[in-house]
Structure formats: C-alpha cells, structure tokens
Design goal:
Strand order of the largest sheet: 2-1-3-4-9-5-6-7-8
Number of helices: 9
Shape: elongated
Radius of gyration: 25 Å
Order of helices and strands: HHHHHHHHHEEEEEEEEE
Structural class: alpha+beta
CATH architecture of the largest domain: Ribbon
CATH topology of the largest domain: Umud Fragment, subunit A
Helix content: 25-40%
CATH class of the largest domain: Mainly Beta
Number of domains: 2
Length: about 250
C-alpha cells in the first residue's frame, strides 16, 4: 500500500465509485487503477493528477496532498538499488481513441494550473541527481540523471560530481573518444594510473597519470600515437578522476 494508493482508494469509496468506474472516467484499465491503489505500480505525476481529478479532487494543495504522497507510491528504500531503471521501466497506459479529446483537455487543464517539471523527479531527489554535463571551459551544456547510492555517486558527493564532454580524440588510445562523457569525481591530488581531468597551461585535459616521483608526473595521451608531457606538481591543477565513461552508439 502507498499514501497515493490510500488517497485514491479512500476518496473513491467516499464517492461510492468502483475501480471500474474510476478507470472508465480517466481512460485507464481497471487493473491499472487497482495496481496504483495497491502501490505496486509507479505512475507519472500527470497520470496521478488525472486519476485524482476523475474522483473529484480538483483543488489539491501542498497542505493536504504533498509531493511525498505521490512519491510514496513505492517504497523508495526498495527502489534505490535499481533507481536508474525507474524512468525507463514506467510503461505508459493505453490511451483509447475514444478518450483522445478528453486526454488533450486534461493536459491543457494541467498546463493552466501551472504545473511544471516532474513531481516524480522532485520527490525522488534523495535517490536521483541531475548531474551537469560540462564542456571544455566547464560551462553546463546538458545533464544526466544518476542514482545516489548510500549518499554518494561513484564515491563522490552528489553536488560535486559532473560529466566532462571529451573535446577531442586525444585519449582514444585509452578508449575515450570525442563526444564521450567522462564522469568526474573531485580529486585534488594526482592518482597514479588513473585517468584524470587536469588543468595546465590554462587548458583542461583528460590525461592518464603516471607518477615519476612525489613532485613530478607524466600526463599521457594517445590519439594516433602515444604522447606524454612531464610536469611538476605546482604546474598543474587536478580537478578530478574519471570514474566511468559513457558513449553513444
């Protein structure tokens, strides 16, 4: 059971309605309504509002129906280990042709109410993070959703990690190509053997680190051929290590 399911079931019973009647009014199947009431189905915020509206709850406010009520459709502690699949796995319910005009009308009414963004994503901020994608001058150009596991993302503070958009093929020999997204976890000191985002000569680079001695390091790259630059610790600034790399097929 969930708080959203409780709310729908309580109001439906108060209105002397059956799940089948509610389903008919909002254009979903009876089994879909029953699953929502039982808390076994995650639904988008627009569908939650659509069901609530169909049973007479037209003027809900934060005071009597909070974001937590919607988020509690499932147990977030159980969702967390596989939260990266939540958005992907939520199926959209069938929309009968006869309900097309009604659905369009509902969307317009929701827009008029000033609903922006996703209530689901707002409610799941404790387990999901919108991680920015930064370009070569560390300006945000996009974002990606990542799961927060035990308060961390790949070992880093959720508000500190970011993606770095590989600007060229200088690291292709290390399997990082232009346009790939390298997830950067802050690290202020060089890590031997790690691929890191470093700053030197007023530019930022992805480079593999090799320690020569406590104050001297080799910054390695590999495009068409291997290359390396020897730098002293005071000549560079370590921004972070590459925790993982994402690419588009």
């Amino acid at each position: 059971m969930s708080r959203l399911g409780d709310l729908i079931r309580t109001e439906r019973i108060r209105q002397n309605m059956t799940p089948k009647q509610v389903a008919k009014k909002c254009g979903f199947s009876e089994s879909y309504i029953v699953a929502v009431e039982n808390g076994t189905r995650i639904i988008p915020d627009d569908q939650a509002r659509r069901i609530l509206k169909s049973i007479g709850l037209k003027q809900q406010t934060e005071a009597d129906f909070s974001l937590d009520d919607i988020a509690a459709t499932v147990d977030l502690a159980q969702v967390q280990p596989s939260i990266q699949n939540v958005v992907r796995k939520v199926p959209a319910p069938p929309k009968p042709r006869v309900e097309a005009e009604k659905v369009a009308s509902t969307k317009e009414e929701t827009k008029d109410e000033g609903v922006t963004g996703s209530i689901w994503l707002d409610a799941l901020t404790s387990v999901l993070k919108n991680v920015p994608v930064m370009n070569a001058v560390l300006q945000p150009v996009d974002h990606r959703l990542l799961p927060i596991i035990q308060g961390r993302i790949e070992g880093g503070a959720p508000d500190k990690v970011f993606y770095f958009l590989a600007p060229d093929d200088s690291m292709r020999g290390f399997r990082i190509h232009q346009g790939d997204l390298a997830l950067i976890v802050p690290a202020q000191s060089p890590i031997d053997g790690a691929v890191m985002l470093v700053e030197y000569n007023q530019h930022r680079y992805l480079r593999k680190i090799k320690t020569l001695n406590p104050t001297t390091y080799l910054l390695q790259s590999y495009n068409k051929e291997y290359d390396a630059v020897t730098v002293n610790l005071h000549e560079m600034n370590c921004i972070g290590r590459v925790a993982k790399v994402e690419f588009t097929l």
